[in-house]
Amino acid sequence: MGVDYYAYAIIGLRIPRDKIIGTVTKHKNLCKCDPQTEQMGEEKFCDKCGKLLDHTYKGDDPKFGVGMWEIQEKGLKGWPVVSDGDYGNYFYIGIRKAYYADYKPVGIRDTGLLVKLENKFKMDMEKLGLWDPDAYGLWSVLQVSC
Ligand SMILES: [Zn+2]
Question: For residue 93, how many other CB atoms are within 10 A of its CB?
Fold first, then answer.
């Protein structure tokens, strides 16, 4: 167990986390006994195994059907995605992503290609409700994972 740091540069959007992965209150019954008995009080425990009958916790609520790590592996509509950490505040979605371990520079020398990519990217983000011209730019991201 430790802390890992990853550095990225990304041309694209900085999106608040809750627009990609929200949080939702979930309930889970930790007891596997059957049948269960009803009990009074705030927290209800099984009288056989002692486990909570209604465990309430905060869980992820993926807005695009994929979780925190899957979206970073696969991207969104083919565009690369990174977050600023396990409990970070932002996701970054872009037309190009540079990662220190790729060992190669990432750039676009053809400005015509850059304009085409930006237009396609903007259209895709508008369809997803994520386009925000004020959030578009070149971002350096330090991802902290623990
Ligand atoms: Zn039980």
Answer: 26
Closest CA to 22 of 71, 68, 70, 57: 68
How far is the centre of ligand 1, averaged over its atoms, from the C-alpha of 9 (Å)?
50
- For residue 35, the model assigns a pLDDT of 58
How many domains in the chain?
A: 1
Query: In this structure, what token pair is assigned to residue 46?
Result: 């099984």
Q: How far is the centre of ligand 1, averaged over its atoms, from the C-alpha of 29 (Å)? A: 9
31 CA → ligand 1 middle, Å: 4
Cα 24 to middle of ligand 1, angstroms: 25
Instruction: Kindly tell me if the per-residue pLDDT of 38 is higher than 80.
Output: no
Residue 36 has pLDDT above 60, yes or no: no
Task: Provide the domain limits for residue 124.
Answer: 4-145
Mean pLDDT over each residue of the chain, to the nearest integer: 87
